[in-house]
Design a protein that fits this description.
E2 ubiquitin-conjugating enzyme; UBC; alpha+beta; single chain; ubl conjugation pathway; Ubiquitin Conjugating Enzyme; cell division; cell cycle; five-stranded mixed sheet
Length: 204
């Protein structure tokens, strides 16, 4: 994933359309999704998705990023989870595999549709197009083991460490890395959680 601005590669009318849609999403975000914008690079689109209830991801907050290529919207953007997650359709580098961003892509599909599709993927994984073969195999053959592993990843990597504002649009600076910077206190708590559950995770 490149952190280089892609604004210069996109035509002005696409930049305007993206900017307009992001502004609308900030004003009226989909349920359980919060947009994180970059004021210096409108193509740096990130969002936090709440793990849906009734899934192994419930209670987690998953950060994702959309990468708009120079041929967007003729070609689909790439989507990545920045939060580590155990899911059949998410590769080890965070890349998300979903038909909406592959064969089913249409230029008129907007950013909101993509975000909702990714959220739905947390509810209904598709083991037939698995990027994580282990997760896909467990989902089909040993669901309880799959669920336990996914819950463990959620507990360690995706637990929100502070309350988040509902229906808020958060702004971030271009200098931030692909992973959101955490406050020192948050980092200590996360490190503590990782140490406590590292041995358990290895046994799974």
């Amino acid at each position: 994933m490149s952190s280089i601005s892609n604004v210069e590669n996109l035509p002005p009318h696409v930049i305007r359309q993206v900017s307009k849609e992001v502004a609308l999403l900030c004003q009226n975000p989909p349920e359980g999704i919060k947009i994180i914008t970059n004021d210096e690079d409108i193509t740096d689109i990130q969002a936090s998705i709440e793990g849906p209830a009734g899934t192994p991801y419930a209670g987690g907050m998953f950060r994702m990023k959309l990468v708009l290529g120079k041929n967007f919207p003729a070609e689909p953007p790439k989507a990545f989870f920045l939060t580590k997650i155990f899911h059949p359709n998410v590769a080890t580098n965070g890349e998300i595999c979903v038909n909406t961003l592959k064969k089913d892509w249409k230029p008129e599909l907007g950013i909101k549709h993509i975000l909702l599709t990714v959220k739905c993927l947390l509810i209904v994984p598709n083991p037939e197009s698995a990027l994580n073969e282990e997760a896909g195999k467990l989902l089909l053959e040993q669901y309880e083991d799959y669920s336990m592993r996914a819950k463990m990843f959620t507990e360690i990597h995706a637990k929100p460490l502070r309350p988040t504002e509902e229906n808020a649009c958060t702004s971030r600076e271009a200098g931030d890395g692909p992973m959101a910077k955490k406050h020192a206190g948050d980092k200590k708590l996360l490190d503590k959680k990782k140490k406590e559950k590292k041995k358990v995770l290895k046994r799974l």
